[in-house]
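Exercise: predict the fold of this chain.
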Amino acid sequence: MSDLTQHTNSHDSGHAHEVEPARLGHSPVADIPHRPRATDTDPRMARRAERQVAAMFVLSMVFVVLFVVAYIAIDKTTSVYIPVLGDVGYSQVALGFTLGAAVFLIGAGAIQWAKKLMPDVEVVQERHDMASPKDDSTLAAANYERGKEESGFARYTIIRRTLLAALALFPIPLIIMLKDLWVPGPLQQGKSPAQILSTTLWRKGTRIVSDGTYQPVKATDLPVGGLVSAVPADLREVEEVDGNLNARGKAAIILVRMQPDQIRSQQGEGWDYQGILAYSKICTHVGCPIALYEQRTHHLLCPCHQSTFDLADAGNVVFGPAARSMPQLPIGVDEEGYLVAMSDFQVPIGPSFWERA
């Protein structure tokens, strides 16, 4: 019995020597010997790294200049074939590449600077009380001065100058792209932004076609309680031939059908056709597309911010942040029995803006 006990104690003692318990607060990183970088010991390597960082900042400035040249010189209508993507606008490719390269080179230069030239010191920070030191401002100022000195911002003159120059040139592409916010043509002809945004493709006699299939819609195609998302018949031609991709956002509508005696009011006399009503699909709050219709209450619900419109009562707002009724499109039928618009919207569609109540 004593031998067994002695053997067990001996085994436990040996095992304790083999596995040393972890010490509280001890970091194994502190036991790894620090190896200096080549730039820490060789002045030539440090100067080489400095030139590399400065070269990246200079190249960033070159790409900013190339961006400006591409924006001015390249025809916006030309395209280039890219595998997988197909035909892509040559101007967009050039602008995207030059601006991306300018941003990348500033970031890569900053990383190279930090890795090769800033101090490479391993620090283990011990736990301390959560209370702030008494002289916070003094300590913060001292840390700032130390960081400025260690970063070498003042010491590496060429890096400092090229970085400041690259950052000074970088906003130029952003300023140039503001030119695209200018709407040519209508504004130069005296039309205000309100007039431009208030005009859609709908005209008297424009056929209403279902969105997606582009098939004309007859009154018999829409049962009571049904809803159809629709667009003007000439929408595809405008998008493909004229390249106007904004027309859909202004002209999209929904068709709903209810019993004629359930319609309490409309935005115009006789704007429905046998209980079929046409309303804009764009919420008057912030412009979200809407197609959530409740047949029993005739309410149209916006999924973005829960604005609710009563389509049986002239599209008036019954709940939510929207401040304007959903615009109604007057409709009728042509000689073949297809639904058509009787005019454009009589009120602006979409969300409110600076000149819209």
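Check your answer against the key: The radius of gyration is 35 Å.
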